[in-house]
C-alpha cells in the first residue's frame, strides 16, 4: 500500500485513511485502486472485526482530484464505465462486507467522498465537517451512489432537496436527519469507540445483523433469512460463551486473535 491510502490493523479494528491532505484527500485513479484494495484486505482478514474510514488532516475526501483526471471526452464510454465502476466499488464493498464500519468525518466530504461516508454503517462528524453531493452544480449526476443511498438514509423528500440543489448538509442537520450519530470534536475517537464496542460482541451475531438490515427486502424475505442467520448464531461458540458469561455474571471470554 502506497501513501495515498494508509491501512492499519490494531486490536481487531482496521483503520483506512485517505492520505492526500494537501488536497483534502481528493482521489486519483490510483487512490481508488488502493482504497478498494484496503477495504478488500479488511473484509478478508479474519482478525478484523470492524472498519474505520477516515481522511488525513482537516478533510475526509473532497471527491475526485480534477487536476489528475484525463480528458473524459477523449475516452470511450467503455473506458469511462470501467473507471466509474471502480469508484462505485468502494461503496459496494463497504455496504456488502459483513464487517461493521464507521466513517470519521473531520472536514469536507464532497461528491464521491460524501458517498464513501454514506456507505459506512454509521458516521461521526466534527463541527468542521460537511456533506455535499454537489454534482449538479458542476453539471454531473450522483453517479457514485448518492442518489441511491441518500433517499434510503433520510427519506426521499429531503434527499431530493440535497441532491437537486447540491447544497451542504451541515453537521447539525446530519444529526437531526439521522444521517450522523453525533457531532464531536474527536470523530475518529468516537468511531473508534463504536468499533471497539461492536468488536467485543459475538462476531457472527454482529455480522449477520448487519447483513439482515436491508430496506429493500420484503418481510417474508427477512423472515427466511432470519431463520438461516439465527441458526448460524445458535450454533456459534461465541453465543454459547456469551450466554454462559451472562448466567455467571462475568465478562465473556471469546477466543480472538487480537
TrEMBL record:
Organism of origin: Halomarina halobia
Superkingdom assignment: Archaea
Protein's UniProt name: Enoyl-CoA hydratase/isomerase family protein
PANTHER family: EG:BACN32G11.4 PROTEIN, ENOYL-COA HYDRATASE
Amino acid at each position: 500500500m502506497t501513501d495515498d491510502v494508509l491501512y492499519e490493523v490494531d486490536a481487531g479494528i482496521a483503520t483506512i485513511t485517505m492520505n492526500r491532505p494537501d488536497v483534502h484527500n481528493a482521489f486519483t485513479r490510483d487512490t481508488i485502486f488502493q482504497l478498494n484494495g484496503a477495504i478488500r484486505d479488511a473484509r478478508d482478514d479474519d482478525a478484523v472485526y470492524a472498519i474505520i474510514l477516515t481522511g488525513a488532516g482537516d478533510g475526509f475526501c473532497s471527491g475526485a482530484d480534477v487536476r489528475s483526471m484525463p480528458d473524459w471526452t477523449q475516452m470511450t464510454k467503455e473506458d469511462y464505465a470501467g473507471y466509474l465502476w471502480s469508484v462505485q466499488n468502494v461503496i459496494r464493498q463497504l455496504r456488502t462486507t459483513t464487517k461493521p464500519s464507521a466513517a470519521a468525518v473531520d472536514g469536507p466530504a464532497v461528491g464521491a467522498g460524501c458517498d464513501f461516508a454514506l456507505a459506512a454503517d454509521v458516521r461521526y462528524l466534527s463541527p468542521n465537517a460537511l456533506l455535499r453531493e454537489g454534482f449538479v452544480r458542476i453539471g454531473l449526476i450522483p453517479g457514485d451512489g448518492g442518489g441511491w443511498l441518500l433517499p434510503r438514509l433520510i427519506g426521499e423528500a429531503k434527499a431530493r432537496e440535497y441532491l437537486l440543489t447540491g447544497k451542504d448538509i451541515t453537521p447539525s442537520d446530519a444529526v437531526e436527519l439521522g444521517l450522523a450519530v453525533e457531532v464531536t470534536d474527536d470523530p475518529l475517537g468516537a468511531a473508534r469507540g463504536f468499533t471497539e464496542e461492536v468488536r467485543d460482541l459475538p462476531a457472527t451475531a454482529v455480522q449477520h445483523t448487519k447483513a439482515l438490515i436491508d430496506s429493500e427486502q420484503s418481510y417474508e424475505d427477512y423472515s427466511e433469512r432470519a431463520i438461516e442467520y439465527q441458526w448460524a448464531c445458535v450454533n456459534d461458540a461465541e453465543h454459547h460463551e456469551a450466554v454462559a458469561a451472562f448466567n455467571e455474571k462475568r465478562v465473556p471470554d471469546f477466543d480472538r486473535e487480537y
